[in-house]
Amino acid sequence: QKEVEQNSGPLSVPEGAIASLNCTYSDRGSQSFFWYRQYSGKSPELIMFIYSNGDKEDGRFTAQLNKASQYVSLLIRDSQPSDSATYLCAVNMGVTSYDKVIFGPGTSLSVIP
Amino acid sequence: DTEVTQTPKHLVMGMTNKKSLKCEQHMGHRAMYWYKQKAKKPPELMFVYSYEKLSINESVPSRFSPECPNSSLLNLHLHALQPEDSALYLCASSQEAGYSPLHFGNGTRLTVT
Predict the structure, then answer these.
(1) Looking at residues B78-83, what average pLDDT do you find?
(2) Alpha-carbon torsion A26, B60, A36, B110, what sign?
């Protein structure tokens, strides 16, 4: 089982819709969960981070964490064409490798005007 | 503007050359990371420094040699690279290793000829 997995893309949504991005992780000891956006040819840009079970909202973005299910998601409301990018889920590994932050394979999102 | 500065932006080197990639941050972060990213793949962790000590080495070949002269600087020394080492090399920093969000530099695009 890979350490961090994401729903396979590409994902296409119409402008104004909600985009839902999912991520699962293998290490039950993981404590820190991050979502990054990466445009082609650019470096990853932090969107959200979450540490506790439940929802965390920031503007149009909501991160959801369920540690029991080892699942973290990102919802993008009122999707805009400028949201078209690759979304990367990143997770720190558990107690034995706490400093390791591993990225999932990414989900490509395309928002259609 | 990124708060993590990487130089050079682009580097072309032969397989017998020795070169270095440099990374600098002035955010007072105590952890610094090197990632390698190939086209259409996620960033792949190489090294983590925490409080200027190497804490993670992801079994990286010895032709890559990291160095952390102080808490603000991170170098990656390159020697006898192979063409398959051509990639985008990303430096990141975080307040605490593993726990805090990573802030990425713009990367160095390396081509090995």
Answers:
(1) 96
(2) negative
Dump the DSSP string for chain A. --SEEE--S-EEEETTS-EEEEEEES-TT---EEEEEE-TTS--EEEEEE-SSEEEEETTEEEEEETTTTEEEEEESS--GGG-EEEEEEEE--GGGTT-EEE---EEEEEE-
Interface of B with A (CB under 8 A): 2, 31, 33, 41-45, 48, 50, 55-56, 58, 88, 90, 94, 97-107
**Over the stretch B36-66, which tens digit does the pLDDT of each residue have?**
999 999 999 999 999 999 999 999 999 999 9
Q: Report the distance separating Cα B98 and Cα B1, nearest Å.
A: 24
Kindly report, residue by residue over A7-22, the tens digit of the pLDDT: 878 999 999 999 999 9
Assess contact for A90 and A33: CB atoms under 8 A.
yes
**CA dist B48 to A18, A43, A77, A96, A112, Å?**
36, 18, 35, 14, 39
Which of A47, A43, A38, A42 minimizes the C-alpha distance to A84? A38
| A39, pLDDT greater than 90 | yes
- The helix/strand/coil state of B16 is coil
Interface test with B, best of A8, A72, A101 (most B CBs within 10 A): A101
CB A97 within 8 A of CB A31: no
